Amino acid sequence: MNPAQSSIAMLIGCIAISAPAIVEARIYLSIKQVKSLFFPKEVLKKSPIIISDDLQKKMRSISSVRHPFKGDKIWKTADGSWLIVDEVLGKHEMITYAVGINSKGEILGIEIMEYVESYGYEIQGDDWRRQFIGKTASHPIKLNQDIQNISGATLSAKHVTDGVKRVMTLYDIALKSE
Amino acid sequence: MMTRCKVFLGTYVEISVRNQDGAFKSLALEAINEAFQEIAMVDKLMNIHQKDSELSKINRLAPLGITKLHPLYSRGFTNSE
Questions:
Q1: Residue with the larger pLDDT of the pair A116 and A11
Q2: Which letter does DSSP use for residue A147 in this model?
Q3: Chain B contact for A119, CB < 8 A?
Q4: CB A63 within 8 A of CB A171
Q5: Within an 8 Å CB–CB cutoff, is residue A33 touching chain B?
Q6: For B46-75, what is each residue's pLDDT tens digit?
Q7: Which residues of chain B are within 8 Å of residue A26 when distances are taken between CB atoms?
Q8: Any idea what DSSP says for residue A67?
Q9: Which residue from A114, A55, A124 is spatially nearest to A88, judged by alpha carbons?
Q10: Is the predicted pLDDT of residue A129 greater than 70, yes or no?
Q11: What does the alpha-carbon distance between residue A55 and residue A42 come to, in Å, rounded to a whole number?
């Protein structure tokens, strides 16, 4: 075993002992790439906006995303289309995504730009373990039967959906009229 | 290799195309987009997390009688056997 291999083995050993969570970072698209994907020909002008407390509050109540919206990654085309980059909390880490909106206010597309997520917390969670309480040998105790398979991905995908809702709320309240 | 990710079926769907040395970029992108369109169709039909998906409609209508299924379901059943 060479030094690199043995240090990897050490690292894996440590992870196995301390916490069964694995962090995985995936970068799909840069801002430049997402711009050319949604608006290949148009010129995009950076149009950041200051999010007032009132607007922040409205966006939160409509989308139920608690993490504050920053408002610095917003671009506009000459015809009134928009590109908004936002991030939401996945299950434990942030997920960056982009929403393209055309001049009619319709969603052109949603792209996941960066996905950093950790796996393994699901089975540590109280909710998951609580499912076992009260079970006896006569219960199947089988995944997808009487034990729900809690997928971190399913939960965090919902957060992206909520995030898109808040981006569209921002568009409706603040961007549309600009 | 080109990889993109979108949210479908209540989870993350990642599609990669192997294009050596980043060649045929637009072709790779086109292939990914076409594949996503297919998944979008499956999502529209079978996403249990979406209230207006056909699967949700079937679940709602099931107690009331027989519901006609999209042909994609029978393909799904056959493939999963």
A1: A116
A2: B
A3: no
A4: no
A5: no
A6: 888 778 888 888 888 888 888 888 888 888
A7: 3, 5, 14
A8: S
A9: A114
A10: no
A11: 29
H-state helical runs in A31-99: 31-38, 53-63
Q: pLDDT (tens digit, 9 = 90+) per residue, A63-116?
A: 888 889 999 999 999 999 999 999 998 877 888 999 999 999 889 888 999 988
C-beta pairs of A57-66 under 8 Å, 24+ apart in sequence: A58/A169, A58/A173, A59/A166, A59/A169, A59/A170, A59/A173, A60/A166, A62/A165, A62/A166, A62/A169, A63/A162, A63/A163, A63/A165, A63/A166, A63/A169, A64/A162, A65/A159, A65/A162, A65/A163, A65/A165, A65/A166
Do A109 and A100 meet the contact criterion of CB atoms below 8 Å apart?
Answer: yes
Q: Measured between alpha carbons, how far is residue A116 from residues A10, A141, B59 in Å?
A: 23, 31, 34
Q: Does A151 touch chain B (CB under 8 A)?
A: yes
